[in-house]
Amino acid sequence: MTDVVVVPGAPLLLPEYQGRTPADAGLVDDCAAVVRAAVATASHVVVVHATDREPRSTRPPVGLRVADHLLAASHLDFDVEHLAVAWDAPVADCVGAGRALSEEGAGSAEHPTTLLVVADGSARRTEKAPGHLDPRAAAVDDALVDAVRSCADGGLGRLLDLDPDLCADLLVAGRAPLQVLAAAAEGVPLAVESLEVSDPFGVLYLVAHLTRTP
User: Fold this and answer.
1) 124 Cβ partners below 8 Å, 6+ apart?
2) For the whole model, what pTM was predicted?
């Protein structure tokens, strides 16, 4: 891979949930900008997203819809591959999926590849959060963000330490996709191009762009 971008699977990023004015215009703009930057030179994009925890219709998972919308909004041409991972997939399954992606090809100057990972942190950061407050959420989210921020020092590998049961309790919808990323990026030198963190609705939203270094 030549670029990695992480965006939240927030429904508010989809036009049908925005109404006349987006609930968080800054987040919408940030996600659109970071995706466009990450795919600007890509010939191939791999989207990694989780299944919905509680599917309520026959529509595709929210993460997939968010990714497809952001990619379409870039108005650029590239091949797109989708990888759906169960929201509660065991760590071993995530590692296997990530290593399979790595074996397919890491991308090159001739065939640059962007990995687009749709992943939220905990949805239990405040009393008004979807899952209400859980005091354990902050530490798990801090570990998640620090792992991504420390990618240049191999920090992504620490994402594999996230406990599936604890993350399920904390409604960390992005645990499995992030662990796929950790395995896919093993041995790949990456640096942080940009990273923004927010939790306007008690849900951790991470917007990050990582680039491969020489």
Assistant:
1) 130, 131, 132, 133, 134, 137, 170, 171, 202
2) 0.95
Can you read off the two tokens belonging to residue 140? 């798990």
What is the C-alpha end-to-end distance of the chain, expressed in Å? 12
Amino acid, res. 185: A
Residue closest to 113 by CA, chosen among 43, 38, 208: 43
pLDDT per residue over 108-131, tens digit each? 456 799 999 999 999 999 999 999
Output the CA–CA distances (angstroms, integers) from residue 53 to 3, 28, 66, 169, in the order listed. Answer: 28, 23, 16, 12
* Number of folded domains that form the chain: 1
Least Cα distance to 158 among 186, 138, 134, 135 occurs for 186
129-144 pLDDT per residue, tens: 999 999 999 999 999 9
CATH of the domain at 31: 3.40.830.10
Cα–Cα dist 188/159, whole Å: 15
Domain that holds residue 110: 3-212
